Amino acid sequence: MHFQLDAETEAYRAEIRAHLQDVMTAEFEERLYRSGVAHDDAFAKGLVDNGFFAPTWPSEYGGQNRTEWDDQVLKEELMHAEAPVYLSETTRMVASIIRQVGQQSMKDRILAGAMKGDLTIALGFTEPECGSDVAAATTRAMRDGDEWIINGSKMFTTNGHIADYVFLLARTSPEKPKHKGLTMFLVPLDSPGVEAQAVWTLSGERTNITFYSDVRIGDEWRIGDVDAGWQVLSLSLQDEHASGWGPHIARLLAHAEQWAAATVADDGVVRLAEPDVRRRLARVAMEYEVSTLLQRRCVWMAEAGQVPVAEGPMAKVFSTEALVRASQDIVELVGPDAVRSYFEPSAPEQGRFEYLMRFSVGTTIYAGTSEVQRSIIAQRGLGLPR
């Protein structure tokens, strides 16, 4: 087992970092923040044009046949820069599933456009009454000849108001056990009967509740077999559960170090020289290191052909909870000024401390709550009973 990066991967990281320094201007960041939408078409096309969209995909699909380590440094740099890539990530995730289990007609219709940044796909899993219990979905899809009629609603359909499609989980056999009667569909969001309403999160992000009222789609939009939706969905959940959030801790640490080095206390001593300040920064640095190692273990396993079933949730739950701890610790260290808002002129470090404290709370929910992650670790990693 090793977590070191070779020279080629480090060179790839340098290319990514240089590109992001060019495009992630202060004006661009502020526009994204004020819109609450983590997507920009021109930015996404720039990733495609520079080979930063799907580096591990085969070249015939628009990828570069790169390694899992190259993909990991790409994710690290994009997250550290807070780049607007969430819709690009969900598009690539669903495209990967279509590539594995989709009908040939859907592959021909979707894959090329997705890899060029010409079309986008949002996720439609969670429902207002189901929370993290995704399999309890009640959105119905009823067969009508060669078509399906969909009725129901989905919560937290982030980017559902701008995406071209939604990767939708629907119940097709209500009489079967909840995991057995589900089917996955790719639903065009311009279909009659689809409506998206804004929902704003604590961090200022816009997500959506989406409604489906007698939405008709052809059977060609089904992904996988009828009533085999849970197996299809598991392919995406596995990727989501293996997400690591360490780069956000790194960015928080960098801002805290800059603040401490530039701030002088009332007694004339630079804050960075104070033992308590150094102790808190060291604690954040250690949690970042652990988060990085846990995530890179998942990458090493993937490169070795192993599936990080429990290791992915370990990386996710530790890194997100570490981000919460670190952001709260730094706000306490900086004091009342730390709660000055993002982009407020007098806020230390452009208001990053206040923003990251709000943002961190949501990360413990994204891609499955900490409780869900711990259940996976216990049951599938340790073999404990439900």
Automatic annotation (TrEMBL):
<keyword id="KW-0274">FAD</keyword>
<protein>
    <submittedName>
        <fullName>Acyl-CoA dehydrogenase</fullName>
    </submittedName>
</protein>
<feature type="domain" description="Acyl-CoA dehydrogenase/oxidase N-terminal">
    <location>
        <begin position="7"/>
        <end position="118"/>
    </location>
</feature>
<keyword id="KW-0560">Oxidoreductase</keyword>
<dbReference type="InterPro" id="IPR037069">
    <property type="entry name" value="AcylCoA_DH/ox_N_sf"/>
</dbReference>
<dbReference type="Pfam" id="PF02771">
    <property type="entry name" value="Acyl-CoA_dh_N"/>
</dbReference>
<dbReference type="InterPro" id="IPR013786">
    <property type="entry name" value="AcylCoA_DH/ox_N"/>
</dbReference>
<dbReference type="GO" id="GO:0005886">
    <property type="term" value="C:plasma membrane"/>
</dbReference>
<feature type="domain" description="Acyl-CoA dehydrogenase/oxidase C-terminal">
    <location>
        <begin position="241"/>
        <end position="381"/>
    </location>
</feature>
<dbReference type="InterPro" id="IPR052161">
    <property type="entry name" value="Mycobact_Acyl-CoA_DH"/>
</dbReference>
<dbReference type="Pfam" id="PF00441">
    <property type="entry name" value="Acyl-CoA_dh_1"/>
</dbReference>
<dbReference type="InterPro" id="IPR006091">
    <property type="entry name" value="Acyl-CoA_Oxase/DH_mid-dom"/>
</dbReference>
<dbReference type="GO" id="GO:0050660">
    <property type="term" value="F:flavin adenine dinucleotide binding"/>
</dbReference>
<dbReference type="GO" id="GO:0016627">
    <property type="term" value="F:oxidoreductase activity, acting on the CH-CH group of donors"/>
</dbReference>
<dbReference type="InterPro" id="IPR009100">
    <property type="entry name" value="AcylCoA_DH/oxidase_NM_dom_sf"/>
</dbReference>
<comment type="similarity">
    <text>Belongs to the acyl-CoA dehydrogenase family.</text>
</comment>
<feature type="domain" description="Acyl-CoA oxidase/dehydrogenase middle">
    <location>
        <begin position="122"/>
        <end position="209"/>
    </location>
</feature>
<keyword id="KW-0285">Flavoprotein</keyword>
<dbReference type="InterPro" id="IPR046373">
    <property type="entry name" value="Acyl-CoA_Oxase/DH_mid-dom_sf"/>
</dbReference>
<dbReference type="Pfam" id="PF02770">
    <property type="entry name" value="Acyl-CoA_dh_M"/>
</dbReference>
<dbReference type="InterPro" id="IPR036250">
    <property type="entry name" value="AcylCo_DH-like_C"/>
</dbReference>
<dbReference type="InterPro" id="IPR009075">
    <property type="entry name" value="AcylCo_DH/oxidase_C"/>
</dbReference>
